[in-house]
Every structure is written in C-alpha cells, then in structure tokens.
Amino acid sequence: MLASVSDDRTPGAERAAPPPRAQRRKILRWLGLFVLVQLFVPLTYYLRDDPYDERFAWRMFSAVRLHRCQTSAVERRGDDETPIELTRVLHRAWVNHLSRNRRDVVRAFLRKRCEKDGVSSVVVRNDCVAPDGTALAPQIYERDCGSGEVEEPGALTVAEPSR
C-alpha cells in the first residue's frame, strides 16, 4: 500500500500569488533607486572642497580622520586678546567638531561668541598633524564681529597615508 503524501498547508490557508510582472518591475526600480542613493550620498564628500566635512564619507578610506589637531580660540576686545577655554564654554563633543574643522560648527561658534558685549573679533585656530607626523598648514577662522565677515582657510589638500 502506498503511503499518502501529506500536504504541509494549513487547512483553510491559501498561498499568495506572486505579484504581477509590472508590480515586480516597479519594486525592483525602487530598490535600485534606493541603492543608488545610498552610494551617491557618500560620494558627494569626495566632490566637495572641504575635506574635513566627513558626515557621509566612507571613513575607512579617509586620511582626514587620522589627523590630530590642537584647537585654540581667542576673543579680541579692542587691543586685548583673551584666550577662550573651549571646554568651559562648549560641550566636549562640540570641541571635537571644532578640532575636526567642521566649518558649520566653527561658523556657529564664531557667530555665538560675537554676540557677547565688547567682542570685536573671534579667532579659532587648528594646528593639525598628519598621521606620518607632517605638520599641516594651520586652519585659521576669524570673524569680525562688527561687519560679520568671516575669513576661512583655503582648501586643504589632504594626502592619503603611505602604506
């Protein structure tokens, strides 16, 4: 006697039919578009002139992340220069962003410090060293509080570390 082959389906349950071909194409197009966007966003980092803005970069390929920077800031009131103790006026995370030369953060810091009474200008300076010990050009940002004009360093050429 032959054993009957059992059906694993639950009684009353029906299998969903595969989506029509047009619907599958539409899903694949959206999936392809999503993947392209995921690739394009990090690539925009490499097309910009600010190598320190790495928000969407593939950091494993970046030499910038390995730079070590010493950050200092001063306020000028007339002829007097007063150093700013960054860790007293900013959270450590924001000081880290300043030391990484994140221009949006530096601009916001300069603008905020200019709101203090009597401040004529504010300067943020980053002295950075590449992983191989080579000193890089100082990154100096200065805001004239009277005019609101900001001087920023030129584009920095970042050499990839030699392996």
Write a structural description.
With 163 residues, the chain is α+β, with helices and mostly antiparallel strands. The protein has a domain at 66-151. Helices cover 31% and strands 19% of the residues. It is built from 4 helices and 5 strands; from the N terminus they run H-E-E-H-H-H-E-E-E. The protein has helices spanning 21-47, 86-89, 92-99, 103-114, and strands at 68-77, 80-83, 121-129, 139-144, 150-151. A 5-stranded antiparallel β-sheet has the order 2-1-3-4-5, with helices on one face. A hairpin with a 5-residue loop joins strand 4 (139-144) and strand 5 (150-151). It is elongated, with a radius of gyration of 28 Å.
Largest sheet: 5 strands, antiparallel
What does the radius of gyration come to?
28 Å
Strand content: 15-25%
Mean pLDDT: 82
Estimate the global geometry from the Cα principal axes: elongated
Note the gap between the termini.
73 Å
What structural class is derived from the secondary structure elements?
Answer: alpha+beta
Low-confidence stretches: none
Number of DSSP E strands? 5
Give the % helix: 25-40%
Secondary-structure element order, N to C? HEEHHHEEE
- For the largest beta sheet, what order do the strands appear in spatially? 2-1-3-4-5
Count the helices. How many?
Answer: 4
Short note summarizing the structure:
With 163 residues, the chain is α+β, with helices and mostly antiparallel strands. It is built from four helices and five strands.
Question: What descriptors fit this protein?
Answer:
5 strands; 163 residues; 4 helices; 19% strand; single chain; alpha+beta; elongated
